[in-house]
Amino acid sequence: MGALGKPIILMIVMYLFLKFVLPIIPGSAPLPSSLIFLYLILTASGIVIYETLSGESKDAFWGPIQRFLTGENIGGLQALRYGVLILFPLLVGWQTYGSTATSDLPPTESRTIHPAPPGEYTGLVNPVPKTPENIMQGKGFYAAFCSPCHGGNFDGKGPAARGYIPAPANFADPTTIAMLQESYLFWRIKKGGVGLPIEGAPWKSAMPRWELELPDEWIWKIIMGEYDGAHQSPRTWE
Amino acid sequence: MKPANHAVRRVLQGGLAAIAVLVIGGAGVTFAQESVAVRAAIVTGGLPVDDPNAAVWSSAPPATFPMSPQVHWPDRIQEVTVKDVIVRALHDDQQVAFLVEYSDPTQDPDDGAALEFMVGEKKAHFAHGQPMLQVEGGPVNIWFWKHKEDKAVDMSAKGFGTLKPQTHQDVKAKAAYSNGTWKIVFSRALSTDHPEEDVQITSGEFISIAFAVWDGRKDAAGELVEKGSQKAVSSWWYFRADAPPDYSSYMYAAVAAALALGFQFVLIRKLKKGQ
Question: Looking at domain B37-241, does it have CATH number 2.60.40.1190?
Answer without folding.
Answer: yes
